[in-house]
Design goal:
12 strands; globular; 4 helices; mainly beta; twelve-stranded mixed sheet
Length: about 220
């Protein structure tokens, strides 16, 4: 639910009839799913594939795909330490090549708030919801959202998010898409955190490297 306002989903045909919900009804549904939504464990993982584009200096765009496999390394009270194994791949177009954008891989660790029903309900209340529909355990919300560009420009976008209430809030957003960005999240196998190599990683204070203090180093002792 933290990224409730990010993404737009093209709805397809479903064998389950969609049921329209009010915010109050959706809040009650979340409360009924509290145990599932708040469940996390060390090693829990998800894979997210994001496609978008970078606006270049000449106004042209370079499309890219970024894959992030995120795993919970440690749970400390209400916070978690998450490892994100990221792979960035720009398209091999003349514009991308001329801009010097290159593919790279990076391992990043950061703090993230442990999933909580309170936070989910706060996100729901703050959202500018246009519609909420439920089909089985899948809920789709259409909202008015905002996108902030690298230069600080803010634009409005009609966005939709689709998530699966059978999953923890850590990984229950299964597909999101907007005119400017698309992301698909799927299950990833739990990992054995004792086998993770943290000798050369980037450690950020939160999951937003552009607006976070980050440093590179050996953080192997973070698990102890």
């Amino acid at each position: 639910m933290k990224v409730l306002l990010v993404g737009i989903l093209a709805l397809g045909t479903s064998v389950v009839s969609a049921q329209s919900l009010t915010k109050a009804q959706f809040a009650a549904l979340l409360q009924a799913k509290k145990v599932t939504l708040e469940t996390v464990n060390v090693g829990m993982s998800k894979s997210t594939v994001t496609t978008s584009s970078v606006v270049l200096e000449d106004g042209s765009k370079c499309a890219y795909t970024q894959t992030a496999i995120q795993s919970i390394l440690k749970i400390e009270a209400e916070k978690m330490i998450v490892l994100s194994r990221e792979n960035f791949a720009p398209e091999l177009t003349p514009a991308c090549v001329a801009a010097g954008l290159q593919a790279f891989q990076e391992n990043v660790i950061f703090y993230e708030q442990k999933p909580s029903l309170t936070e989910d309900l706060a996100d729901l209340e703050a959202s500018d919801a246009q519609s909420i529909n439920k089909a089985g355990d899948i809920v789709t919300m259409l909202v008015n959202g905002t996108i902030t560009a690298e230069d600080g420009t803010v634009t409005k976008e009609l966005v939709t998010v689709k998530y699966d209430l059978t999953k923890s809030s850590f990984k229950n957003i299964i597909l999101s898409q907007s005119p400017s960005v698309s992301a698909q999240t799927s299950e990833a196998a739990d990992i054995d955190v004792t086998t993770v190599n943290l000798t050369d990683v980037v450690f950020c204070e939160n999951n937003d490297a552009d607006n976070s203090d980050c440093m590179r180093g050996d953080f192997s002792d973070i698990l102890f």
